């Protein structure tokens, strides 16, 4: 559509923001004269590097735009941009209120995501159930744009050429081995692979490959420093780079190993093979990294823990299910990594 300007709300979390990228790429490819303004957190802006015709509004949700009055100021700022369409990919209280503010401007077409809350609730009940795969989150995003009159296909995703990672020398790798990224942490304990098992994965893979460890904050940095100090082929990247540089590094990887977390989505945006490990969550809920084959998801043993999945985001704890991820043998992860890298 000519002269269209779409405002897109997706404020958090990082993984969900990262999943927007293939959809935004498809919109820009299919409708090259359409302008998009992402309303998201400032720290997430580098996730969209390489996309042309995308602007950003980065609200201050902790201060200036925290209250309904603050959100009205944000609404006024957006309105001055003369948008033609509003896409709410988040559907939380803040974005719902913003959509209410826009309602009286009937010429601005609105659409919101269907999160499928009822279906997700059924699949995470503490009972034995049949797993029926739900619509993947990325296709839920695409459906929002289709409602607005912008149907797209995600089957021909074009991966942009990332700028050369200028800080590669800082990794101090001594050879030209393939590089595996490993992100051992997750936002919630119930979907984090036990560190002692992941350490076995790292120790094995570093024999033939370079390994870059990803994480965030002092706690994770200190833990991963121990692993990195044990081998010259393991680098702890925590605290070394800003997010934009870290994404450039991820785009160079030959493989990423992660939990159900943002790192897998960031890697898949650049067509990097991703192995994901699943604990209390499950691929059937629709959050697998885009474009990854089913066999790249390693799930915990549902014969021993038949209530899996017990949570959509991993934030719910179920008594007796604390060790679900110990049913994933490190050898499974190692063998799959070798298979992908030697294919």
Q: Key features?
A:
Rossmann fold; globular; 6-stranded parallel sheet; 343 residues; 31% helix; 2 domains; 5-stranded parallel sheet; alpha/beta
Please summarize what this structure is.
The protein is of the alpha/beta class. It has helices at 14-18, 21-30, 68-79, 93-102, 117-123, 137-147, 195-205, 217-229, 243-252, 262-268, 330-341; strands spanning 5-9, 35-39, 54-57, 85-88, 109-112, 179-183, 210-213, 234-236, 255-259, 274-278, 297-299. Helices cover 31% and strands 14% of the residues.
Molecular structure report:
With 343 residues, this protein is α/β, with parallel strands linked by helices. It has 2 domains: 5-147, Rossmann fold (3-Layer(aba) Sandwich); 168-341, Rossmann fold (3-Layer(aba) Sandwich), CATH 3.40.50.2000. Helix 3 crosses helix 4 and helix 7 (195-205) runs parallel beside helix 11. 31% of the residues lie in helices and 14% in strands. It contains 11 helices and 11 strands. It has helices at residues 14-18, 21-30, 68-79, 93-102, 117-123, 137-147, 195-205, 217-229, 243-252, 262-268, 330-341, and strands at residues 5-9, 35-39, 54-57, 85-88, 109-112, 179-183, 210-213, 234-236, 255-259, 274-278, 297-299. A 6-stranded parallel beta sheet has the order 8-7-6-9-10-11, with helices on both faces. It has a 5-stranded parallel beta sheet with strand order 3-2-1-4-5, with helices on both faces. Helix 8 links the parallel strand 7 (210-213) and strand 8. The termini are far apart.
């Amino acid at each position: 559509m000519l002269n269209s300007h779409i405002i897109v709300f997706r404020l958090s979390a990082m993984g969900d923001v990262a999943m927007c990228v293939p959809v935004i790429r498809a919109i820009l490819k299919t409708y090259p004269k359409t302008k998009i303004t992402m309303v998201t957190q400032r720290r997430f802006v580098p996730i969209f590097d390489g996309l042309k015709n995308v602007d950003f509004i980065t609200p201050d949700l902790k201060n200036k735009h925290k209250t309904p009055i603050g959100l009205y100021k944000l609404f006024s700022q957006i309105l001055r941009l003369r948008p033609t369409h509003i896409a709410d990919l988040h559907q939380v209280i803040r974005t719902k209120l913003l959509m209410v503010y826009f309602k009286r401007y009937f010429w601005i077409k609105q659409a919101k995501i269907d999160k499928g809350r009822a279906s997700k609730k059924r699949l995470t009940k503490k009972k034995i159930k049949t797993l029926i795969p739900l619509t993947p989150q990325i296709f839920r995003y695409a459906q929002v744009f289709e409602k607005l009159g912008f149907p797209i296909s995600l089957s021909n995703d074009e991966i942009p050429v990332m700028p050369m990672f200028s800080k590669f020398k800082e990794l101090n790798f001594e050879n030209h081995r393939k590089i595996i990224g490993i992100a051992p942490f997750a936002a919630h304990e119930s979907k984090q692979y036990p560190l002692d098992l992941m350490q076995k994965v790292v120790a094995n893979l570093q024999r033939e490959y370079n390994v870059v460890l990803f994480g965030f904050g002092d706690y994770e940095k200190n833990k991963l420093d121990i692993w990195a100090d044990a081998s010259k082929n393991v680098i702890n990247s925590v605290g070394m780079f800003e997010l934009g540089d870290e994404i450039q590094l991820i785009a160079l990887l030959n493989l990423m190993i992660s939990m159900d977390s943002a790192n897998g989505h960031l890697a898949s945006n650049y067509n990097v093979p991703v192995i994901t490990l699943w604990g209390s969550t499950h691929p059937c809920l629709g959050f697998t990294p885009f474009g990854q084959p089913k066999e790249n998801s390693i799930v915990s043993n549902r014969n021993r823990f038949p209530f899996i999945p017990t949570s959509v985001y991993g934030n719910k704890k179920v008594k007796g299910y604390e060790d679900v991820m110990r049913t994933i043998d490190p050898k499974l992860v190692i063998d799959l990594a070798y298979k992908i890298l030697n294919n």
